[in-house]
Design goal:
This protein has about 260 residues and is an alpha/beta fold. The chain has two domains: about 70 residues, Ribosomal protein L30/S12 (60s Ribosomal Protein L30, Chain: A), CATH 3.30.1330.30; about 170 residues, Alpha/beta knot. About 35% of the residues lie in helices and about 20% in strands. It has nine helices and eleven strands. The strands form two sheets. Strands 7-6-5-10-8-11-9 form a seven-stranded parallel β-sheet, sandwiched between helices. Strands 1-4-2-3 form a four-stranded mixed β-sheet. Helix 1 packs parallel to helix 2 and helix 5 packs parallel to helix 9. The radius of gyration is 20 Å and the shape is elongated. The mean pLDDT is about 85.
Length: about 260
C-alpha cells in the first residue's frame, strides 16, 4: 500500500535486506544509534534509500499505533528499478531508447504528470535522483492517471554518473535549458536519447548541464521566464514522437557533435 509504514528496527532491517518491499525513505530518531539501527543505516545507504534524522515526535506521528524504537520506513507506491535494469529493458525492446531524466523535480504532481506524458509518448523509462526528488507516492500515482503502473522508474544516487552511463550505452544526452542557443526542434531525436529536465526552482544544475551533448530551448514569448517542467516535458517528448513517426528527415537537422 502506498505510504504504508514499517516500524521497529528488526522489521525495517528485514525489509531492507529482503528487497521485497519498495522503500521510499527511512526516518531515524536523532541521537546515538544502537547496533541494529546502525545496520539499518548501512543497509539504507547500500540501497541508496534516503535517510532522515528526525525528532522522536516526528516518528511518533508517523507510526502512532506501533512502537518504532527509533526507526520508521515509508513504502513507495511502486518499486524502483536500477538504472542497469532500465537499460536492459530498453535494449530488449529493439526500439531507439527514450529516457526522461529529472534533476530534482520535487513536486509530486509534476512528477506524476511527467510520467503520464512519458508513458503515452512511448518512453523507455524515467530516471530520478534518490535525494531532493519527489517520491513515488500516492499523489504521483494518482496524477499519472495509471501510467506509473506501466512505465518503469529508476532511482539513482548520482545523476551525473547516471548520465555518463547512459552516454556510454549509446544515448545522446539532451538538456532542456531556457538559455540554450538551439531550438528544441533542431535536434535529431531519431537516435537513442535521454531528455534531461531540471527542477521547479533552478532548472538543470550546472554539473548536470555539463554532461549534456546538446542543450535546447523552448521559446517563451510572454513575461513568465519558463514553462512548468511537466509542460516542457510534454512539448519535448512529442517532438520526439513526431520525428520518430517519420515527419522529418534527419538530414534536415543541424549537426550536433560530441567533443
Amino acid at each position: 500500500m502506498a505510504g504504508e509504514t514499517i516500524a521497529g528496527p528488526r522489521p525495517v532491517y528485514e525489509a531492507l535486506v529482503s528487497g521485497d518491499r519498495a522503500i521510499e525513505r527511512i526516518h531515524l530518531a536523532r541521537g546515538s544509534l544502537s547496533a541494529v539501527l546502525r545496520r539499518v543505516l548501512e543497509q539504507a545507504r547500500t540501497r541508496e534509500i534516503p535517510v532522515r534524522r528526525d525528532a522522536r515526535a516526528v516518528l511518533d506521528r508517523l507510526s502512532p499505533s506501533a512502537a518504532h524504537q527509533g526507526v520508521v520506513a515509508i513504502t513507495a507506491s511502486k518499486g524502483y528499478l536500477s538504472l542497469e535494469a532500465l537499460l536492459a529493458r530498453a535494449e530488449r525492446s529493439g526500439d531507439p531508447a527514450l529516457f526522461v531524466v529529472l534533476d530534482e523535480v520535487q513536486d509530486p504532481r509534476n512528477l506524476g504528470a511527467v510520467i503520464r506524458t512519458a508513458e503515452t509518448a512511448g518512453a523507455s523509462g524515467v530516471v530520478v535522483a534518490a535525494r531532493r526528488s519527489a517520491p513515488l507516492s500516492a499523489t504521483v500515482a494518482k496524477t499519472s492517471a495509471g501510467a506509473l503502473e506501466h512505465l518503469p522508474v529508476a532511482r539513482v544516487g548520482n545523476v551525473v554518473n547516471a548520465l555518463k552511463t547512459l552516454r556510454n550505452r549509446g544515448l545522446w544526452i539532451v538538456g532542456l535549458d531556457p538559455a540554450a542557443p538551439e531550438a528544441w526542434t533542431g535536434f535529431d531525436y531519431t537516435v537513442p536519447v535521454a531528455l534531461v529536465l531540471g527542477g521547479e526552482h533552478r532548472g538543470i544544475r550546472p554539473l548536470i548541464g555539463a554532461q549534456c551533448d546538446a542543450r535546447v530551448r523552448l521559446p517563451v514569448r510572454g513575461r513568465v521566464a519558463s514553462l512548468n517542467v511537466s509542460v516542457a516535458a510534454g512539448v519535448a517528448l512529442y517532438e520526439v514522437v513526431r520525428q520518430r513517426s517519420g515527419a522529418r528527415s534527419p538530414s534536415e537537422f543541424r549537426a550536433f557533435r560530441r567533443d
